[in-house]
Structure formats: structure tokens, C-alpha cells
TrEMBL record:
<dbReference type="GO" id="GO:0050661">
    <property type="term" value="F:NADP binding"/>
</dbReference>
<protein>
    <recommendedName>
        <fullName>Glucose-6-phosphate 1-dehydrogenase</fullName>
        <ecNumber>1.1.1.49</ecNumber>
    </recommendedName>
</protein>
<feature type="domain" description="Glucose-6-phosphate dehydrogenase NAD-binding">
    <location>
        <begin position="9"/>
        <end position="191"/>
    </location>
</feature>
<comment type="similarity">
    <text>Belongs to the glucose-6-phosphate dehydrogenase family.</text>
</comment>
<dbReference type="Pfam" id="PF00479">
    <property type="entry name" value="G6PD_N"/>
</dbReference>
<dbReference type="InterPro" id="IPR001282">
    <property type="entry name" value="G6P_DH"/>
</dbReference>
<dbReference type="Pfam" id="PF02781">
    <property type="entry name" value="G6PD_C"/>
</dbReference>
<dbReference type="GO" id="GO:0004345">
    <property type="term" value="F:glucose-6-phosphate dehydrogenase activity"/>
</dbReference>
<dbReference type="GO" id="GO:0006006">
    <property type="term" value="P:glucose metabolic process"/>
</dbReference>
<feature type="binding site">
    <location>
        <position position="186"/>
    </location>
    <ligand>
        <name>substrate</name>
    </ligand>
</feature>
<feature type="binding site">
    <location>
        <position position="182"/>
    </location>
    <ligand>
        <name>substrate</name>
    </ligand>
</feature>
<feature type="binding site">
    <location>
        <position position="220"/>
    </location>
    <ligand>
        <name>substrate</name>
    </ligand>
</feature>
<feature type="binding site">
    <location>
        <position position="334"/>
    </location>
    <ligand>
        <name>substrate</name>
    </ligand>
</feature>
<feature type="active site" description="Proton acceptor">
    <location>
        <position position="244"/>
    </location>
</feature>
<comment type="pathway">
    <text>Carbohydrate degradation; pentose phosphate pathway; D-ribulose 5-phosphate from D-glucose 6-phosphate (oxidative stage): step 1/3.</text>
</comment>
<dbReference type="InterPro" id="IPR022675">
    <property type="entry name" value="G6P_DH_C"/>
</dbReference>
<feature type="binding site">
    <location>
        <position position="339"/>
    </location>
    <ligand>
        <name>substrate</name>
    </ligand>
</feature>
Length: 493
């Protein structure tokens, strides 16, 4: 048995995720020499196509939707191993055909008996597919493995997430379930752990004594595109905040784990997730802002009277001694003026700045520009930005801000693997460190469910703007500003 050989079976293989992320990731894995030799991909879609047409669609998608450089011999190699299987996965009867197809290919074409099932489908389809995989006995035998990769969002709220988890647990053991959150595989999100725990200058300051507030912003330039049907049922809170933003928050704010191993890391994140609170759940109205871009109703698949939020900003707290009193501001939205993601840690003002303000000749800075800032840049540019106060070289004493920039993507751009490459390889190797455990997920839903969505008014914002003004007021009330806006003003990436 070759544990690294694999037959990957993608449900939803004609969809956006497969085109934009999964196939490019397979291409890059092969190009980098990481794809197992014994690899085949069964691509399940309901549209009538043959292999040649499907492979052509994938190649077009890679060329037009991604910026990867398609290498001809790499593409020739993987495209031969991609097999289109027409199937309507909402029909029970179809699974017997799939079973027979896999068995036949195992015998005749040496397909590996290690199965990687990838559910790149709308969340309401997860349970049905998994139930049928189990009932129709589509799994590996004789010491081979069957692993299940489930996309996000995992459920629509705490209850449906529980129901889904129960359904999946009937078919797969926890160690074979890989709940994906691709932000966990982004280089700079992983780097947060290194930065905190491998630099003596940060960890002692990582607490309310020294930190004023933390901001996590994930902004997107694109609108909903071809995903209107899915997105309109989901909204920004469930599409982005429940998973990517809360996971980023957990990694930023968790207590030091006992080790950097999968379970210790996840134990620390679980503890943190259990401590998330809105200042006052009754205050969803003021501490949560929902927006919708003006052109949203013109997108395909959007209900005429849709009130789905495409922008969400919120202020929350972590109820533990380390973070008591420190607000965390989260923001995400579509159709904004730029695509970027960052975590910004604003330290407290130095005493001299607070005490004297403009009357002190040393500090002619405004309180905002006085604060030390540590910015972890996740995308598009990966890196770290640190803002320090220094003395301006002059006869008189004056301070000046020194902006220190480390551009990681400038140094490593060609070698940095995309998140999906790392995640697919992790599944093939059986390493679940970068995946979400059930208890983390349940707690994140518990927090999201505490937001009284109905009490939050929906405001409109201009396409390609910086979001609704109401989001500014959320910080202005606290005498603060969004750091991502400061960056846009200065034209930084
Ligand atoms: N797109 C992205 O950037 C990201 C997506 N995700 C997650 O990935 C999952 C998939 O998203 P995405 O690819 O965007 O969704 P799409 O709507 O683009 O794709 C869904 C796919 O499922 C297929 N499908 C639907 N019903 C059936 C059926 N009964 N039988 C066979 N095939 C069917 C569709 O086929 P058909 O074309 O015939 O309708 C389509 O190929 C979601 O859970 C999403 O949250 C996560 C991160 C990023
Ligand atoms: O999970 C999702 O993520 C993408 C954004 O991912 P990124 O890696 O490009 O930042 C988002 O567009 C999509 O709506 C959501 O489902």
C-alpha cells in the first residue's frame, strides 16, 4: 500500500472554487514536485461534457481567472489524470454508478484506493453527499484511507452545524474529517504564531497593559460574481466573519499553546473562542454594522428584495484577564476600493504623548500618530510593518515617525505556495494541523448566533468605495480610526 497515492474526487468540479483554486493548486503541486505519482482526479459535475471539453474549461479558467504561469508539460501530465464524471449528486441512485466507476478504474486503470473526497459544493449539500458515500459504501478498504474535505461555511448556525457534524460523524472518524478554512494556510497568518512566540520583544507586550486595540480587515474588490445564488443565502457574516476573521482573531489573541502541534494549538484557539463577547449582545444595533453595495441587486442570482449584507464591521471583546477592556474591530466586505487583508495591533500611546500633546515640543504628533503600530500584512503583499517614534535629526528636539517595512513577498514571491496547495498536500499526508476542529467551529457559531441580526439596520455603500460611513462611526465613537483607511490614504499596499 502506498499511503501517498491518491484518487481525489471533487464534488462541484464545474464551480468557481475548483476553477480558481483547486485545479491551479494541483498544477502547482505537480510543478513543485509534490504531487504523488499515483494520482488521479475524478471531477463530478452535472453538465454534459467529455474529458476533452472539461480539461479545456480548466485550462481556460487557469489562464483567465488566476495569475499562475501554466507550464505545458505540467499541464499535460495532470490533465491526462483528470476524468470528468457526469452525475447529479442530489440523486440517491447516482452513487451506485459512482461506486461502480471507481471500482472499475481501480481494477482497469490502477486508480489508487486512497480516496480524498473534496466537497466544493454549497453547504446545504454536504450532509446528503456524505450520507450517500456511507450508505453506498464508497470508501477505501484494506488499510487504505478515505478522507473528507469539507468547505466552509460548515452549517448556517450552531444548530445546523451540529446536525451536519452528526451526519458526517456517522460516515467518517474525526481524524479523517478536514474542515477547511484556507486562511489558516496563508503564510502571514501562520507567521503570527512565529512573530508572537519567537520574539521576546512582542509576547510580553501582547496584552491589555500595552495594547490599545486590534483591527482585522479583509477587504475585497470583487463583487459576488457568479456566486450570487450561494452568497445571497449566506452574507458576509457567515461567509467570512464566522470562519476566516474569527480564526485570524483566535490565532492573534490565543494564550500561548503548550506546543505548536495540532491539538495544543487548537486547544488554545478553542479557549479563546469560548471567551468572545459583544460588549453587550443587546447592542448588536450599535456594535455591528451591515452594509450592501449599491450594485448588488444587479448581480445574477440575487433576490429582488434581498437584504443580505455584503459588508460587516463589528466590535467585540475577549472576556479574559489578558484582553479585558481591549476592543477588537473586525471588518470585511465585497466591492470595496481594494483587495487587502491585514491585522493591525495598535499599542497604547506612550505617556509623554498622552500627557503633553501639542504643548510639548518633543511631541508634535497627534495621539493617533503617536501610537506604535504593528501591522501584519496578509495580502496582497505579505509582510510586517512597524511604526516607531524616533528623533528627527535637527538642532531642535522633534520626533518623527519611522515606518519600518519588511516585505516578505518581495523576497519569496516565486516560492510562496498558495493556501490551497498546502492544504491539499496536508490532506494527502494526513496532517490536520491547518484544519478546524469541531469544537472551535461550534464555538464560533455560538458567538455568531449571539448577534441579533434582525436588530442591525442594513446601510448602503457605493461600489468600489471604502464601505459605509457608519463603519467609521463605530470607531469614531471610541476616538479611533480604521488603520486600513489610513493605508489607503497613503497609497500603501
Ligand atoms: N469560490 C470561492 O472562492 C470559495 C468557495 N468556498 C466554498 O466552496 C464551496 C463551493 O463554492 P463555489 O465553487 O464558489 O460554488 P459554485 O456555485 O461556483 O459551484 C458549485 C458547484 O456545484 C455543482 N452542483 C450543484 N448542484 C449539483 C448537483 N445536484 N449535482 C452535481 N453538481 C452540482 C455546480 O454545478 P452546475 O455548474 O451544474 O450548477 C457547481 O459546479 C462553497 O461551500 C463555498 O463556500 C470557499 C472559499 C472560497
Ligand atoms: O471563503 C471565501 O473566501 C474568499 C476570499 O478569499 P481570498 O483568499 O481571496 O481572500 C471570498 O471571496 C469568498 O466569498 C469566501 O467564500
Amino acid at each position: 500500500m502506498n499511503t501517498n497515492s491518491c484518487t481525489m474526487i471533487i464534488f462541484g468540479a464545474t464551480g468557481d472554487l475548483t476553477l480558481r483554486k483547486l485545479i491551479p493548486a494541483i498544477h502547482q503541486l505537480k510543478w513543485g514536485g509534490y504531487l504523488p505519482e499515483d494520482f488521479n482526479l475524478v471531477a463530478i459535475g452535472r453538465k454534459p461534457k467529455d474529458d476533452a471539453e472539461y480539461r479545456e474549461n480548466l485550462l481556460d479558467g487557469m489562464k483567465t481567472l488566476t495569475n499562475i504561469l501554466v507550464e505545458q508539460s505540467t499541464w499535460d501530465y495532470i490533465s491526462e489524470r483528470i476524468h470528468y464524471f457526469k452525475m447529479d449528486f442530489s440523486e440517491d441512485g447516482e452513487y451506485e454508478r459512482l461506486h461502480a466507476y471507481l471500482e472499475k478504474n481501480k481494477k482497469e486503470n490502477n486508480f489508487s484506493s486512497n480516496y480524498l473526497f473534496y466537497l466544493a459544493v454549497a453547504p446545504d449539500k454536504f450532509g446528503f453527499i456524505v450520507k450517500n458515500l456511507k450508505e453506498k459504501n464508497i470508501s477505501s478498504e484494506n488499510g487504505n484511507w478515505s478522507r473528507l474535505v469539507i468547505e466552509k461555511p460548515f452549517g448556517e448556525n450552531l444548530q445546523t452545524a451540529y446536525d451536519l457534524n452528526d451526519e458526517i460523524a456517522k460516515a467518517f472518524n474525526e481524524e479523517n474529517i478536514y474542515r477547511i478554512d484556507h486562511y489558516l494556510a496563508k503564510e502571514m497568518i501562520q507567521n503570527i504564531t512565529m512573530l508572537r512566540f519567537q520574539n521576546t520583544i512582542f509576547e510580553p507586550l501582547w496584552r491589555n497593559t500595552y495594547i490599545d486595540n486590534i483591527q482585522i480587515s479583509v477587504l475585497e474588490k470583487d463583487g459576488v460574481g457568479s456566486r450570487g445564488g450561494y452568497y445571497d443565502q449566506t452574507g458576509a457574516l457567515r461567509d467570512m466573519v464566522q470562519n476566516h476573521l474569527l480564526q485570524t482573531l483566535a490565532i492573534t489573541a490565543m494564550e500561548p499553546p503548550a506546543s505548536l502541534g495540532a491539538d495544543d494549538m487548537r486547544d488554545s484557539k478553542v479557549k479563546l473562542m469560548s471567551e468572545l463577547v459583544l460588549f453587550d449582545p443587546g447592542k448588536s444595533k450599535t456594535d455591528v454594522i451591515f452594509g450592501q453595495y449599491e450594485g448588488y441587486h444587479n448581480e445574477t442570482g440575487i433576490a429582488e428584495d434581498s437584504e443580505t449584507e455584503t459588508f460587516a464591521a463589528l466590535k467585540l471583546f475577549i472576556d479574559n484577564p489578558r484582553w479585558k477592556g481591549v476592543p477588537f474591530y473586525l471588518v470585511t466586505g465585497k466591492k470595496l476600493s481594494e483587495k487587502s487583508a491585514q491585522v493591525t495591533i495598535q499599542f497604547k500611546n506612550p505617556a509623554v504623548c498622552n500627557a503633553s500633546g501639542k504643548s510639548n515640543p518633543i511631541y508634535e504628533l497627534t495621539p493617533n500618530s503617536c501610537a506604535n503600530i504593528l501591522e501584519i500584512k496578509i495580502q496582497p503583499r505579505e509582510g510586517i510593518h512597524l511604526r516607531l517614534n524616533t528623533k528627527k535629526p535637527a538642532v531642535e528636539d522633534q520626533s518623527v515617525v519611522a515606518e519600518m517595512e519588511y516585505c516578505q513577498s518581495c523576497q519569496y514571491s516565486f516560492n510562496t505556495p498558495d493556501a490551497y496547495e498546502k492544504l491539499i498536500l496536508d490532506v494527502i499526508k494526513g496532517d490536520s494541523t491547518r484544519f478546524t476542529r469541531w469544537d472551535e467551529l461550534a464555538l464560533s457559531w455560538y458567538f455568531i448566533d449571539s448577534i441579533d441580526k434582525k436588530s442591525v439596520p442594513l446601510v448602503s455603500y457605493k461600489d468600489e468605495s471604502e464601505g459605509p460611513q457608519e463603519a467609521d462611526l463605530l470607531l469614531k465613537r471610541d476616538d479611533r480610526t480604521w488603520w486600513f483607511k489610513e493605508k489607503i490614504k497613503r497609497g500603501e499596499s
